[in-house]
């Protein structure tokens, strides 16, 4: 049997509180009136009597059935004078009771009202606690570092089968379906990338065999070189898709990593490519301890430096300054990796688009463009998977400054300060 709805429970709850508060106020009012009218009032009549008292002490006593009033001097007032005095006394008592009721009743009303409001506040907070859980869970999912992350969160609300539980259950069902959808998408990308490796490997082998035949002509060899270049670009694309799929997964195991060591390693790997392109590679491997996946962080640094080399100023430019600078350092409670390079002018409104997959600027949108178009997308995904941020800023003289911020390794934070 379905229990009473939340709306019905709130109606009964606040109705009961109001009823209790009204009964309490009524009781307080009754006590106040009782105290006022139960008191012994003694009214002294001052001033000129309506009828002067007898000059002699031998006043005629009033009849037993006659209304009379004695003042403090012992004078007797009877008839209309006694009625007038009693009426005046009754009015004074009434005015005193009304004044007492208005004053003390107002105070009692404020106190009881405040008490009822406090009880209502506490009870409403308890009743609305499930809604706070729904809101907190939604905010944690919204604050996840990347799309698809944080979808493992569930409300799992226990309690009566009312509207709030229906809302929480519907929310859990929606998040679960989204979680399955994102997992399926990542699995598809990973599986498709793995499956595409085989035909590309076979194609490369066939082209190489054809090129190295003794009977291969110069045209065949030239065509083979072009096919190998295209094949290598496709392999880079598949590798990028695999890395992107891995970086969007939730990190389950992290280890202490120093970005300074990664900077040194990557600079050694890319020094030959930078020299061949005529680009000076400057690196400053400062101490930057953090926690994360070392392979993914190495790919992050590698993509940034490689991007700076490949998207630098053209070799035939008149400028002698063609360089890439990569620096790691510790700033407060974070570590930073800053990669700066010379290059063409980039409009500020285009900067954010550079982090989208397969997005290229200008002429680089051609098929023969440099890279796979996933470099900066992988950088952002890796950084967000580690709880970090990536900010790119165009340089006034051309090129970019890309700053990656990650949390510092807490175990070493104290020794660095």
Automatic annotation (TrEMBL):
GO terms for cellular component: plasma membrane. GO terms for molecular function: phosphorelay sensor kinase activity. Its main location: membrane. Residues 125-183 form the HAMP domain. It is found in: Cell membrane. It is an enzyme of class 2 (transferase). It comes from the Bacteria. Its EC number is 2.7.13.3. SUPFAM superfamilies: ATPase domain of HSP90 chaperone/DNA topoisomerase II/histidine kinase (SSF55874), HAMP domain-like (SSF158472), Homodimeric domain of signal transducing histidine kinase (SSF47384). It catalyses: ATP + protein L-histidine = ADP + protein N-phospho-L-histidine. Residues 191-410 form the Histidine kinase domain. Keywords: Kinase, Membrane, Phosphoprotein, Transferase, Transmembrane, Transmembrane helix, Two-component regulatory system. The chain crosses the membrane at residues 12-33, 101-124. This is histidine kinase. It comes from Kribbella pittospori.
